[in-house]
Each structure stands twice: as C-alpha cells, then as structure tokens.
Amino acid sequence: MRSLGGYRLLSLLGKGEMARVYKVLDPVTGRLMAMKVLRPSEILEDLLGKEELERLFRSEARIMQELQSDHVVLIHSSGRDCGRTFVLQEYLCMNLALLIGEAIEAELPSRTMSPLLALDIVSQILQGLDGLHRAGVVHRDIKPANILLDKFKQVKIVDFGLARTESLDHNRPAGLVIGSPYYAAPEQEENPAKADHRADLYSAAVVLYRMVTGNLPEISRLKDLDWDLLGPDWSRFLHKALAPDPHQRFSHARDMLAGLEKLKQDWENRREQVCRLPQGIKADGPLETRFLRSTAIYTGRRPRAFKGLTRLLQPVTHIQNRLHRLKYGILDQATSLIWAGEISREQLSLEQAREVADSLNMDNSMNSPEHRWRLPTVDELVSLMQPRRSLEDFCMPSLWSLEERSWLWSADTQTRSKAWIADMEQGAVLSQDRHCLFHVLPVRRAAREELSFSG
After folding, report:
1. Which of 46, 120, 130, 141 is catalytic?
2. Among this protein's residues, is 159 annotated catalytic?
3. Which of 98, 173, 178, 317 has a CA between 20 and 30 Å from the CA of residue 29?
4. What pLDDT sits at residue 222?
C-alpha cells in the first residue's frame, strides 16, 4: 500500500494496539502530514469488535476537531479508502520522549533538561489539559511520546485513543488496560472507567519529575531524595502532585498551574546560587589538537560508530575549544575546523541543508575538496558541546546565538529515511526524519595558513 485517500505514504511513524501512524505527502500542495490509520491488533478486535473500534476511532477524531486548542494537535480531515478509516493531522517531527532520550525500556534513566524548560513544557501540557477537562475529556495517556513539540518547543498533545468521555467509554470490557505503565495514576490502573481528570494531572507530574531528574518517581522513596539542588518547594509540589490518593492532589489543572508558577519564581530567585557539572562529565586534559572524523557515515539503527558518547548519546568528555572569529567564519584551533559564523535562520530538510553548505563554496577560494564547506559529522558537532556550569546553561559556545536554533543537521545518516541531528541546547545526539526541518551550521577543514591565526 503506497497511497491512501490520495496521499502518498512515506514511512511508518509508529503503531499501537489500535492504529498505525504514517508520514504522508499531499501531492497537490507538497505538504507533509501525519495519517493515523485504524489497524487494531487481533486481540483488541476480538475484545471490542470491528464496529465498536470504528466508532471509537471516529469519536476520537471528532473530539480533537472540536477542541480547537493551541495545545492539541490539529486535525485536518478524516476519511475512508481501500477499506481503511484514517485521520489526517498536522505533522511535527519532535516529541518529548525523543528529546529526553526515553528508551523503549522506560525504566532506564533518560536525559535531564533545564528546570525552566521542564516547567514551561509542563505548563503548556496543563494548559492543554485544562481545555480538555473543561470539555469533559480525560486523556488517560499523558506521557512523553504523546507530547509533540514544534521548533519553538510549543506543546501539542496527541493520541486520544484512550480518552474517556460519556460517548467513548461505555462498551469497553472490564479489565482492559488503559494508559501507559509508569505514567498512569494508581486509580487508573485499578479501575480505568472511574479515573477522572486528576489522573491526567498525576501523569503530568510524572513527566515533570522525569524531565528534571532523568528518572521515574518511586513513591516510597520520594522522602529520601536530595532536593537541595532545586529547593524544598519542588519536593512539596511533587509530593502533592504524585499523591496516590487523587483527593490529595491538585483539584484542577489551573490549580496545578498556579503551583508551577510558584516553582518557576522560586527557581529563578535561587538558580544563580546553584552550580554543578552534570554527573559523569569529565574535563579534558591539556590543550591539544583533535582531528575528528570528517567523512559522513551510515550507522544503521544502533549508533555504535559514534565514539565517546554515553548510552544517552551525550559526550563523555568535552574538548576545550579555542575559538577565534574570522571574517569568513569561526576557527577552532583545538580541532582545526572553521565553522560558519552564523547558524542558518531558515529551517531546512536534509537535502536543503546540504545545498546551503554547497552554496558557500561558490565564494570559497579553497578549491581542495578537503577544505570545502559541508555538513558536519556528529563527531564534529559534538566537539562544540560544552559541559554546563549550571542547569540552565546552553551546551554550545556563546559565539553562536541559538535563538530557537539549537537543533542542527549532521552529515551522518541512520537509515534511508533518517539522519542524525545534534541538540546543542541539551548536549545530545538524536535521529530524525530526513524530511523534517532543522537548522544547519556548515563546517570545513582549515588550511595550514589559516591555522597560524593568533588571536
């Protein structure tokens, strides 16, 4: 099946018990979209039956179209073709699970992020949930994989296949698991039909805990955690938000939002006094020139080819850059590389990013292939990642202004449809679809005469 409803199927984005999601292309407009196609598992079809699954699928699409929220993924249309029911929705490349490096084995540690960014993301989740709850909808599957992010890190909640409303919830058999392990509230696991909006708030609190600590909360151990870094207000907030009894939690999303705002104010007041290096980071020894891989590679699905990265694809050590601004770029004497002086303002596909790098060679007096502008390898991009002096620092030298341009293309590819990018804010490497739009920072090898620069 190469097309459906007149849209070209490009690749499979994900699949669950009820549906599969594909990246599709509108041949008329050239716009990329996500298509969710009803394809239930045999077990689910035996439990609910085809007619009930069809009703639930269409009801989910109707709910999302009626919500019209800035923090709910936009539905374009729905239809049926070749015996398949589908829904077309906006396509966003990034989701929170990918951003923090949450593995299939969710119990494994993930990457941590800036407390301010974590608070901002969860605030947006709660704003979206407030609209859902006012409309009588309980999502019941809030987790990082269902939180999409645009280039400005604006949140879009997706996947309402488990949502509960009066029209959606009846006829579901008793004992059917609703929600995701580790993120579902205790009462939701025990009796999904009776879980109300406070179950969503519990899940949002787990997401916050995950982003800031890199771990999943263990209720019995919350009292033993060391909150000296973030302050006692965080501990009190999370104890309330993660209370096993829903009556002891925040009553509504707007109440939890008010609590988050207090956390933000407290952190802004004390973050300048809090300073540490991330665990596991080692400073390099004496200054020396590093010669990094400059040839692009195809890694396959397991990036074992990347040396010096942790399981979470973050650098084990950091190079002490020796950067000098030149009239045609920025020289790093530590790596003998010359970087473009500015990150591209436009977001580009991988092919477009390659064209931008190639276009710089029209004005380049260096004719040798070794000194031509090109996309950097992962190894080269990682050489710019610096250890944070505090939890809010960017991981990239300040000679470049990120300004919402922290996701950069590399020349390395993972599969025929995916390539590697660097998150210069979080200091990590992750894979993305080649059609996604990110920024580019071209690089080239410095000539011998350029290395003699003395700043």
Report:
1. 141
2. no
3. 98
4. 56
